[in-house]
Structures are given as structure tokens and as C-alpha cells.
Amino acid sequence: MNPVRKTPEVKVSESAAGSSQVVKVFLAAIPRPWLVLILVVIAVGLVPVIESKAKTFALELTQPEVLQQESGDKFSEFKHDNAQHARLPCLLCHRREDNSAKPTLPGKAAHAPCAGCHSAQFSNTSSPICTICHTNVQTGSLKPFPKLRSFNVKFDHARHSGVGASCGTCHRPNRGGVSLSIPAATGAHTICFSCHTPQAQSNGKNLSSCSTCHELGKLVRTNERAAAFQVSFSHAKHDAGENLKCADCHRIRPGAAVGRQVFSPVPLNHHAPARSTSCMSCHNGTRTFGGDDFSACTKCHKGSQWRF
Fold first, then answer.
1. Cβ neighbourhood burial of 114 (10 Å; 0-12, 13-18, 19+)
2. For residue 180, which of 195, 194, 191, 164 has the smallest C-alpha distance?
3. In Å, what is the CA distance from 251 to each residue of 80, 155, 260, 264, 297?
4. pLDDT tens sequence across 2-41
5. Which of 102, 59, 50, 121 is nearest to 84 (CA)?
6. 78-116: per-residue pLDDT in tens?
7. How many angstroms separate the CA atoms of 60 and 29, rounded?
8. 134-136 vs 141-142, strand pairing mode
9. 215: left (phi > 0), else alpha (psi -120 to 50), else beta?
10. Secondary structure of the chain in the HEC alphabet?
11. What is the CA radius of gyration of the chain?
12. Do the Cβ atoms of 221 and 184 come closer than 8 Å?
């Protein structure tokens, strides 16, 4: 008769600390055949779970539109904010093969990369997906590149001035020199691409991708018609010819929102708030005309529409 094997009594000393030590003691107390059996049962139970997760992940990579396509979406409109599109890098679709300011639509090579996920739709020439880019599917005629609507522009004046960009790098005389232009549309690309060339990098970070300047959101343009222009202010009369530079009137506010990053003087002379930078800061009757010399009114206030 075989002797019955007794499970050894395990005593944990009070000095034993930490969960790892407790686990070691617990495992040592289990007979080896039983321990092996337990591990086999756990492994067998995990196999279906692992296979299911692997299949789901593979399906997400190959057919993401099947899993998360919005209800009722018939592929007639491309949406950047779609969960599957938003996770893709911009350069996957918008490849900058040269430094052209005009962006191009993807799909030149057998509709890649779009067909990688939407193969079922591209195999059918009557699919609504074709109308996203084509005005006529049979002739292959293309629509113009869409206007910027679903993307806002992010720009940091402080960062650009810190690497040597001056105001004149981006802002040019506009409206006869009265105002200065704010880059927009392909004109902005022309200016930006002078530095942000294809493959441009800074500290190992790519600076040529769309996401460098654009982010999802409603486009908000900065107004070029400042209040100062309504009182006959002109940049053309406040330039280097008058021994003035941009920094004499404008200061950069690091970290401020777009549209508020550059400080401008209060466009008032006679009733400007105390201690503010305004027209009166210079037009004080000492540095230049102004102050109480009301015979010089017409130097600022002009036009038949002006009235006190």
C-alpha cells in the first residue's frame, strides 16, 4: 500500500514581506503535477480569447470602414474626423513630391492608399466613393482640391521669431500699403514652404506634414481690417522711412491664441486709456505732431465720411 503523500505545512514567518514572497511560498506548497495541470488548463482557456483578439485587430487594419463606418454613410463624402481616418498620418495621402504650393489629391497610383481599405468600393465604378474626387467617373475628370473648411490653422509667432523669421517674411504691404497681408490659402503655402520644404526637419521632427500647421476644427481667419485703418492709419506712413520698425508698435505675446498673439496699440489719440500704448504715445506734440495741436487734425482724419 502506497503511503499517502502529505502536503507539507507551510508557515510564513512574520518577517516575510511583499506579495512576491507570498506567491513563491504558495506555489512551493502545490505538488508539481497539480501545478502543471493548472497551468495547462489556464493556457487552453486563453487560446480562444487570443485568437479572437488577433482576428479583430487584423480586421481593423484591413477593413476599418466595415467596423466603424458611420450609420448611413454611403461613402459619398470624405471625412477627416472619421475615427479611422483621423489616426492615419497626413503624409500617407498628401505626399509632397515637390515644393508646389498647390496640394494634390491622393490615388494617382491605382487609388492608393485609399483602395487599401476600401477595395470593395473601388472595384465598383458606380460606387458613390468615386464622386468624392471625380466629376465624371468614366472620363476620370477630377474635382479641384477642396477649400479649407474642416481644418483650422495653428501658428506660433514666438516660435517663428525665435528661429529668425521677421514680420516681413510673412506679411507684405496690402491695400496700397495701408495694411499688411495675412497669408492664406495657397499663398500661405508659397510663403511657408520657403522653409517647410519636403523632408524638412527640426530636432528630428518632421516639419513638412499638413499637421505641422493644420488641425481639425472650424477655420477661423484673422481679420485684416483693424480698427486703426478706420481712422486713416497707414503702415506705409509708419515704416523705415520714418525710422520706425514693427517692434516699435507691436509686441508678441507668447502662448496666446491665434489672432491675439501680436499686441497692437490702441487706435486712439485724444481719449486713449491711461498708461496704454496708443497713437498718443508718439503723437504727443513732442515726438511728432499731435497733442493739443488741433490744426493738424487732417493729417489723421481724412475723407468726406469723417465727422466728429
1. buried
2. 191
3. 36, 16, 11, 7, 28
4. 555 454 454 544 444 455 565 565 656 667 666 666 766 6
5. 59
6. 888 888 898 898 888 888 889 999 887 888 888 999 999
7. 45
8. antiparallel
9. beta
10. CCCCCCCCCCCCCCCCCCHHHHHHHHHHHCCHHHHHHHHHHHHHHHHHHHHHHHHHHHHHHHCHHHHHCCCCCCCCCCCCCCHHHHCCCHHHCCCCCCCCCCCCCCCCCCCCCHHHCCHHHHCCCCCHHHHHCEEECCCCEECCCCCCCCEEECCCHHHHHHCCCCHHHHCCEECCCCEECCCCHHHHHHHHCCCCCCCCEECCEECCCHHHCEEECCCCCCCCCCHHHHHCCCHHHCCHHHCCCHHHCCEECCCCCCCCCEECCECCCCCCCCCCCEHHHCCCCCCCCCCCCHHHHHHCCCCCCCCC
11. 34
12. yes
CA–CA distance, 289 with 274 (Å, rounded to integer): 19
Is 130:114 a contact under the CB 8 Å cutoff?
no
- Counting Cα atoms < 13 Å in the Cβ hemisphere of 74 gives 5
CA 7 to chain centre: 65
Instruction: For residue 296, give the amino acid letter.
Output: A
For residue 229, pLDDT over 90 is answered with no
Contact by Cβ (8 Å): 87, 34:
no
Nearest by Cα to 70 from 82, 81, 56, 85: 82
Q: Hey, what's the cell of 66?
A: 466595415
156 torsion bin: left (phi>0), alpha (psi -120 to 50), beta (else)? beta
